[in-house]
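Hi everyone,

Forwarding the result from last night's run.
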Amino acid sequence: MKISRFAKKEPERPVNIGEVLGRDLGEDTVVDRYRNLELLGRGGMGEVTRAEDTLIGREVALKTMRVPMGDKPTWASERFLREARVQGQLEHPAIVPVYDISNDSEGQPFFTMKRVRGQTLEDVLSEQRDLSRTQRKGARRHRLLSAFVTVCLAMHYAHERGVVHRDLKPDNIMLGAHGEVHVLDWGVARLITAEPHDAPLDENDTRPGEMVGTPGYMSPEQVLGQLELVDASSDVFALGTILYEILTLEPFFPQQHATEILHATIDANRTPPPPKDCPPELYALCLRATRYDKDDRPQSARELADAVERYLDGDRDRELRQKLADDQAEHARELASLALDGPEANREHNRSQAMREAGRALALFPEHDVARTVVLRLLATPPGAIPDAVQQETTKLRASQGRSFLRDFSFRTISWIVFWPLVLLMGIKSAPVVGAALALVLGCVGFAFWLSRKPSASSEWRLGLFGMTCALGVVLSSIFGPLVFVPGYVAVNTALFGAQCSKRHRAWVLAIGCATIAVPLALELAGVLPPSMSFSTEAVTLLPRATWFTSAPAMIALAAVSFAGVIAPSLVASRLRDALLEADARLLLHKWHIEQLAPTKLSQS
């Protein structure tokens, strides 16, 4: 229907939210509006619960006071309400907004604020401490430093409005899953000016001589109860300790007990432990922010934020890094001289320390010629004795190679089972001999597999396995004789076991291998064993002993054995050659890496 523009206009009336929601808000009490869902935390003065704001339909964090009130407002209630007013008037994305302040049905004060989700910085740092050094990621440090910048900017905003937090610590910084950062718990915040307006000054909050804060993060003036000196620089001190903890995952004050921490805080000469893997610019920033004299600290939290942002943007203090690198490179050169020409007893230790110092110098200043020269000098002059750490790694590598060899030997030996049908086709002449050969095959396989399951099989055990292998060769000589097939079988196994046994057992390996052929041949010549072949001017005849020589099966068996004698050594030699080529490639790669460390003038010479 079309309405004329000259039609009489109906008088406007205000929108009734109660009608929209279908409720009579005039009869609502404050308690009716909020429905508690879950306790989130409890402190000395209050507790925080997850609650539903039924009026708006959203979740909030509801903080209620736990200290009983009398007929008049108490110091505790004033402090509780002041926290809400201070926090509510600091409108910053990193400061949790306050929605409502009121009293419940029993007259206890409460206030509601935005429900924040995530992990505290303390929880994140604790998780990082539990990880090994190799699992820690540089990206995590970058994100934490970015969050730290946000905290600094939030604190600068609060300081400009005359508010000092006084209890900054990792447990009061919340990190959300989507990059949110919030500064929590403004319960002991101090107002150093009349701003924010309408918030009462805190003459009743803290009295001179009283200490407010958390040991390990409090500034010296807080520890000494010098209320008149507590200002923005006190929060800067706490930010410096938090930055140090982000960088090192260690507390700024390593002492165990609160009393020791407080004494260390007011020690003007204290210095935190020098970190191993910490950017020198940020370490210097931590030292500045935590000076005993507040006038020596950065002038504002923004100055801290700007310095960290410059680091994140890739701005490095080249002069500072080169100076630190010079000191470490010089120390590395001294240690390298001791490692090469000093007392024999300390050479290994001095060599490792020299490499570490030179590595740190190169990490600070990659173009440092002295540090690179030290590394090249040490690499070009191998130590006289193998270091213990290298010896341990060598032992592990050899044990791994030994297990691999034994597994391969098991599969190679069990493959001989496929020849037994040919033995049956030829016809068994001596069942005990054939049975003994089969038992030895299975025994060698089982023994080798058992040794491969051991963490480390000694050279003596491997020598025993080789003895069983040669015993099998002696029994196999009963089929075609000691001069057919057996020499190739023994040659391959003697070469493999000789490479796996220690130097002192190699002579035994050669002796046992030769005896595998010589003993049955000597027994034949002595007439103890029947001959395996006969000779004439026109022919060499193989004589049956363990099996009959049926024409076709015997020919197939000889052909199969001959092919196996070609294939097996070729496969073994190919694998050895592949391993050598891979080792050569790794050596050349390491050589290339080392050449990249060399100064240009050295690498071209």
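Residues 3 and 10 are 13 Å apart (CA to CA).

Cheers,
N.
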